From TrEMBL:
BP-aspect Gene Ontology terms: sporulation resulting in formation of a cellular spore
Annotated protein name in UniProt: Sporulation protein YabP
UniProt cross-references to Pfam families, sorted A to Z: YabP (PF07873)
Species assigned in the record: Paenibacillus albus
Lineage, uppermost ranks: Bacteria, Bacillati, Bacillota, Bacilli, Bacillales
Gene: yabP
Length: 94
């Protein structure tokens, strides 16, 4: 039997009909509006884009975020895409 240590990263994403999104492994909500959420997760930054997005549930103690609205895309921002996403971070610090 294998024990899961605290150092093991885990994330679960559940989506229902592109309208309800539940994400675990969330460390922080960096920014959000009705078209875009930027989450810091255990596996990197996650950008969620869509229409009429709003937060249904937030529990950073449990690492859980639930988002409602029409989801267009989910995108992890890693080292390869960080240069492309400067517009996203530029929006944060206007």
């Amino acid at each position: 039997m294998i024990e899961q240590g605290k150092s093991q990263k885990r994330q679960e994403i559940k989506m229902l009909n592109r309208k309800i999104l539940e994400i675990t492994g969330v460390n922080n909500v960096e920014s959000f509006d009705n078209e875009e959420f930027l989450l810091e997760t255990e596996l990197g930054f996650l950008a969620i884009r869509g229409q009429n997005l709003h937060m249904k549930h937030l529990s950073l103690e449990q690492g859980l975020v639930a988002i409602e609205g029409l989801v267009h895309s989910l995108n992890y921002l890693d080292g390869n895409t960080a240069a492309k996403s400067k517009g996203l971070f530029g929006k944060l610090f206007k």
